[in-house]
Design brief:
This protein is mainly beta. It contains no helices and 65 strands. Helix content is about 0%, strand content about 50%. The relative contact order is 0.04.
């Protein structure tokens, strides 16, 4: 029967030179412990527990294989636990047997020097016993390596002096569920293949370099676990992840950290995990990096992106936030918002000639400017320019609708891409610029939205906040009051023509800058239409619940009408003079000041007593307090 089985302790290494010797099985009771130099290999040759010179061989170790010679330190290949020189498969342990050990004084497992693809599966421990610079696994041929499984996260490849695993100028296909550790570096990848650390079911996987890289790779990388670099404060040798070359993809759903979190050149980095540089730099790229950030990503430390780098903010189940642009995040020549992505990004972006290209900016996206870019701005043809010199160029199939304002709580300028049902929250002061169209804008209590000339509102809702309109604003579909204490402020010399719905007690409509002179009155002669008349000129507000009243100034029980104006202001009641500035009123017996407020008590009969008045001059204003 072909094959070799070892179930006892052997003190001489096993040399495979014949195909009939394969497969090799070292049982749980079997041991190969080679402490001498086999005469057949000669002094200076390979001192191995198992030396395999047969193609397509199979070595299964459930026991122990060690190569720890007492002489012959002159060759780098001395003391190799298993040397798979030609081809085949090495399996150390099994998913249910994790006690198996392969160890060598210089290398645990060596994969040899031809183009035949080899396979290493480790479920136990592969280790280095000596004190020389060395490798837990040294690979010089195309190779597939699996360390552990979803059911076995204790699998270990370790070297307390050199690298845990190194592959040189070959294709490496590595899947790690356990730990790969090297004092001088965790994993040194190669020129092709792929590296997977952990799985969606396994976040315990670890690649660690105590005094060096966690992972150096030129292959595609998928990380679900932890990749950890050293702590010797060496910028070039203590990265958690170092990517050499370009054109590969790195995806992080776990944690990567080191003195520098990651150094990546000319590739694609998809981050949905934690990237930390405890030396102050989470990510560094000299240029050409495509950085795709998911909402769950966390950067601890600065991010430096070189020339030609593009930052893409991806969509997710939550709203993403990313702060520090212009300070801790620098160098992105383009920022792109992915379709259906909602992000709030914040930063300084200050400085003359500072231009950022923004792609895909859409509903729900917000840019916060945390440093001085200037107080004034213009927005036209997709380009937003501040008087401090900072500019944003919004690219895409069409220029986005923007809302620009100030967060009163933080003092930051906010740029919002507004889609249907956008919300202006408490403490926000936002501007709808010319050329932007908002549908279903909601202004909550404590928030203020101001629409500039050339802006368009469709079905705006005043939910306790303030909506400011000026000349040249297009309002269609209606203005809806909801909640309480909402305010519509018309700052121009015209009033909005759109229908106003839900105006009630506690709400306010202020009509500013109408040139009141000799007299003015406010009437409801037709249901749903409030008319302001001044010197034979009429302004009509379409308030759907306004009712025809007995008095010109009265809209319903408990309503308040305030008209502030010049010294000749008159209040008319059923066509008669009720009070005139500077003239005592016979019925009331007081002198009406130049600016006053009148209160109509509940029930019919009109004016009963003064609510308040202010003697200081005021810009002519008509204020309607809801009471319908």
């Amino acid at each position: 029967m072909s094959g070799t089985t070892i179930s006892t302790v052997e003190t001489v290494g096993l040399v495979l030179s014949l195909a009939s010797q394969s497969p090799v099985l070292i049982t749980e009771s079997g041991e190969i412990i080679n402490k001498t130099i086999p005469a057949s290999l000669g002094v200076g040759g390979y001192v191995s527990g198992i030396y395999d010179d047969v193609s397509s061989s199979s070595i299964i170790n459930l026991g122990t294989v060690e190569a720890d010679p007492v002489v012959g330190e002159g060759d780098s290949q001395l003391g190799v636990g298993v040397f798979l020189r030609v081809g085949g498969v090495v399996t150390n342990g099994s998913a249910t047997d994790t006690s198996a050990l392969i160890a060598g004084s210089r290398t645990g497992v060596a994969i040899g020097y031809n183009k035949i693809t080899k396979t290493l599966m480790n479920f136990g421990t592969i280790a280095v016993l000596g004190s020389e610079a060395s490798y837990g696994v040294n690979i010089n041929s195309n190779c597939s390596v699996t360390n552990g499984s979803n059911a076995d996260v204790t699998a270990l490849i370790t070297d307390d002096h050199g690298a845990g695993l190194e592959a040189v100028s070959v294709n490496l296909f590595l899947t790690n569920y356990g730990t790969i550790y090297g004092r001088g570096g965790g994993v040194f990848g190669s020129t092709g293949g792929s590296i997977v650390n952990g799985s969606s079911l396994d976040g315990a996987a670890l690649m660690r370099g105590a005094r060096g890289f966690g992972l150096v790779s030129s292959e595609n990388v998928m990380n679900y676990g932890t990749i950890e670099g050293g702590n010797t404060n060496n910028y070039r040798f203590d990265e958690g992840l170092l990517v050499e070359g370009g054109g590969i993809t790195i995806t992080n759903k776990g944690t990567i950290f080191g003195f520098v979190g990651a150094v990546i050149e000319g590739s694609t980095f998809i981050d949905d995990g934690v990237l930390e540089g405890f030396g102050g730099t989470a990510l560094y790229s000299g240029g050409g990096l495509a950085l795709d950030v998911d909402p769950g990503a966390v950067f601890i430390g600065g991010v430096t992106l070189g020339s030609g780098s593009v930052l893409t903010l991806e969509s997710g189940a939550s709203v993403g936030t990313l702060a520090g642009f212009g300070s801790s995040i620098v160098g992105a020549s383009t920022i792109s918002f992915a379709p259906d992505a909602d992000w709030t990004i914040a930063g300084a972006w200050a400085g003359p000639g500072k231009v950022e290209t923004i792609n895909g900016f859409g509903g729900g996206d917000v840019i916060e400017l945390t440093a001085g870019v200037g107080e004034n701005w213009t927005y036209a043809n997709g380009r937003l320019e501040f008087d401090g010199g900072t500019s944003f160029s919004f690219s895409g199939s069409a220029a986005p609708d923007l809302m620009i304002g100030t967060n009163q709580a933080t003092g930051y300028i906010e740029i919002s891409a507004v889609g249907s049902g956008a919300v202006v929250g408490a403490g926000d002061l936002d501007v709808v610029p010319a050329g932007s169209t908002f549908s279903g804008l909601i202004i909550e209590h404590g928030g203020t939205a101001s629409a500039a000339a050339g802006g368009t509102l469709r079905d705006a809702k005043i939910a306790g906040g303030v909506l400011e309109l000026t000349n040249g604003v297009s309002v269609t579909g209606g203005i809806h009051f909801s909640g309480t204490h909402g305010e519509l402020l018309s700052l121009g010399t015209t009033v909005p023509s759109a229908a106003i719905f839900g105006f009630k007690r506690g709400d306010t409509i202020v009509v500013d800058a109408i040139p009141y002179k000799a007299d003015a009155r406010v009437t409801v002669k037709e249901a749903g239409i409030v008319t302001i008349v001044e010197e034979k000129k009429s302004y009509k507000l379409h308030i759907e619940n306004a009712k025809v009243g007995d008095d010109d100034y009265r809209f319903g029980p408990g309503s308040v009408l305030t008209i502030s104006g010049g010294p000749a202001m008159k209040f008319l009641r059923n066509g008669e003079v009720s009070a005139q500035a500077g003239v005592p009123d016979a019925g009331i017996g007081v002198v009406v000041p130049a600016s006053l407020s009148l209160a109509a008590a509940g029930g019919a009969g009109g004016l009963v007593g003064w609510h308040e008045w202010r003697a200081e001059p005021a810009v002519p204003v008509v204020t309607l307090h809801g009471g319908f």
